[in-house]
Amino acid sequence: MFPDDLTFSIADWVNRGVDALVTRYGDLFRQVSESLLWVIVRLENGLRLVPWWLLLIIVGGIALHATRKVFSALLIMGLLFLVGAVGLWDKLLLTLALMLVATVIAVLIGIPLGILAARSNRLRAVLMPLLDIMQTLPSFVYLIPVLMLFGLGKVPAIFATVIYAAPPLIRLTDLGIRQVDREVMEAVNAFGASRWQQLFGVQLPLALPSIMAGVNQTTMMALSMVVIASMIGARGLGEDVLVGIQTLNIGLGLEAGLAIVILAVVIDRITQAYGRPRHEVRP
């Protein structure tokens, strides 16, 4: 047995820190929560207003533009139609809205941080251990402080998803910019390009495949949080999976699980296609 004299706990320290945050910035957290919830609700309502057949055509058009393959676009439309055919269309839209908001926030945070990390070795040395912790810490651990700050519902689910899903995008953005050929950068410097011209004219375009791979990974990881998010009040396909587990309803859980897989396949194929150089995408 480990001696009690040598044991210690950080639980009290963490609890005091979270309590201080709630006391000092509670109003700010409430405003952020209300604003984010407003965006989510409007997006959900907007998706519901679009007729199902029109949404299928829109997604099919995006898939066709990305893959340049008619068969792939028709297959994606057919998979989404299958989700609606089993009565999960509304749940699919709720999950899609939640995931889109979380992914957009992760992109807005991840790409700038990746760019800064690529430009600063000191910042990178600080970020990498934090990203390791964010990726290895069990996702349930994120829910505890987020619930204390934002309560139950969609907002804490989004923040927990962002924490879990942002690290791959930060890493791959940093990696993509660092892998830009030095000879190319020397030639750009020789022409007197500013740092902003180098970034937007050379580095980001050349690093785009790596960045899009990061967006793909972030999207997939955000989708993997769907079931966990349902445990704290976020509705959608994850809710049906959770109910299926709780009631031992294998059919319900399987239908919702397959719908999540279909959504993952659709998003994965589109983002991967946009991540490849356009000359590699053949009609």
TrEMBL record:
A Pfam family for this UniProt protein? BPD_transp_1
InterPro entries per the record?
MetI-like, MetI-like_sf
Transmembrane domains' residue ranges: 46-64, 71-89, 95-118, 139-166, 241-267
Indicate whether Nucleotide-binding appears among the record's keywords: no
State what protein this is by name: Proline/glycine betaine ABC transporter permease
Q: Look up and give the organism this protein is from.
A: Pseudomonas eucalypticola
Family note: Belongs to the binding-protein-dependent transport system permease family.
Could you tell me the Gene Ontology terms of the biological process aspect for this record?
choline transport; glycine betaine transport
